[in-house]
Task: structure prediction
Amino acid sequence: MSATLRIEDLHVTVGEKEVLKGLSLTMHAGEVHAIMGPNGSGKSTLAHALTGHPGYRVVDGSVSIDGVELLPLSATDRARAGLMLILQQPFEVPGVRPYDLLRAAGADPTSLRARMASEADRLDLKSELLDRFINVDLSGGERKRAEMVQLGVLRPPFAMLDEIDSGLDVDALELVARRLVDATREWNCGVLVVTHFRRLLTVLPPTTIHVVSDGRVVEVGGPELAEKLERDGYDVYRATSA
Amino acid sequence: MNSFTDSATNFIDECVDGAARQRAWRRFELVGLPTTGDEVWRYAPLGDLAIEHFEVPRGPAASAETPLARELSERAERVVRLVDGFAVSLGEDKPGVTVSLAPGRESLSGEPLEDRYQNDAFALMNLALAPAAVVIRVAAATSLERPLVVLNESRASACFSRTQIIVERAAEVTVVEYFDGGDQALVVPLSEYLLEEGASLRLVTYQRLADSTWHVARTTGFLARDGRLTQAVVGLGAHYNRSRNDAELLGAGSANELRTTYLGSGDQVHDFRTRQYHVAPRTTSTLLSKGAVADRARSVYTGLIEIEKGAKRTDARQTNHNLLLSPRAHADSVPNLDIRENDVMCAHASSVGPLDELQRWYLESRGVSPDDAQRLLIQGFFYEMLAALPGEMAPLVERDVESVLATVIAGSS
Result:
């Protein structure tokens, strides 16, 4: 039986403001799900809240992987339960190199260098860049690819990627998308992407698209939904949620 | 018991330049050892300093080179070895670099050393008791690929070393000063650096003496026009680790970047003092001091930015972050500004608190345990300092830092 990530009726506040107002979503290992929606609809909040980012307070709801409730767990234990997040703007950690992070995260040190090099190669990222401190002195596109190297080494059962397509040129976007497709095949990774653009989804075909507006999922559909959104925009959802 | 005074007197009597040393010694006796009543010494455990237990050595003890010292030497352009302050080797001659021993009575500022350090008891001790000054001169426009390494090994109970580095016009060099050894010893190095016009000196001082030792170090950089001094000071060892690092920005456009870091455990005290003295226009100083204290250790950071009238468009920044790893550890941070010119940019910030919450979360969200995340981030303070080291040397020192950190953090959590 394949693993299942289940988000049920999630309510999250940032500061005083309730941003997620009962969001639900279920996905299985090996599937690709996309979350689309207008700016400010709560997409990024979902990504942050799932991994226990400080500043995002879950006030109600449940997130589980195969019945194991994640919300009471620390950030470390959520990661160990199988969930990895790649942020829209991966920040810098001066003084810490990717190798040291990955080793501390449990990667096998005997093969780690080789695996990092091979992952970098697949993303057309110069592997010397991984000798720098995490994301320090990297361009926006290099950061995204450096984060993808971590994903390829850590092989999380579920990966959530917040606007992985921003800051990437067309060629890099295609490499990243293909790497994610391969991830679904190589270790049956469940991929949850937040995106504004259909372009990513042409290389990384989604099993399911969830349209989020005003903190809730307002429509669920197949890949055809992306075309409709590109054509019609989000106005129709804004109208219903306002 | 008067072992220190007697051995010092005997040592001075035997030196050919005994008269000059005698003057410095008398001045030392006049100034006297500091007391905690002196503001700048109030955090030092001077009550533990039994000066008469130290004995001034008459020559170097047998060397017991550590593997790290050996590995650094293998990767150096040239190696100078000092044991107990005595030069046992000045290294092989290389084009563009001369190393010599000198009586060294003159400061690189041009004035007599005794005048310059007339109120500093430990510097005066050094002037009376250092066997000689090691003078390293890098010829104009020389650019060295690999660093010069100065190994300072302490085997006797007292060790006074003096180093003067002159980087001539438009030359570029990296120097690593390494201190180890020391068993209930007193180690008092005094260093000066002169950067001529357009010269660049990257300096890494790595101090990992035994934690029963007193280390009282003082360095001063003199920067001519467009000179660039990039200095990293790493303090891991010593019972009392005092490091005073000054820079005088004397020529227009000169720049000083100073990074200091420390890790304290047990009942160690790390006491960092800095003074950035801006004399000429368009000079910049960037100072970053970061460190952590565990157990009952304490740290002190006192930094002064001084800007003279006429040093227009000076840009001076000072940042100090201290991390407390145990409820009994303590950190004091005292930034000071003394500005006599209006047209300047000046900023200082200091904090005593926990690690950056978001960086910690980032590491944990990748499955790193909270303890390991803390260890990686503290280790990162040091790795940032060591970034000045060339690629083949940094991993050696990082490995050494890692082993020390692992012990301290395991003991404190």
User: Anything to note?
Assistant: Chain B has two domains: 3-356, 357-413.
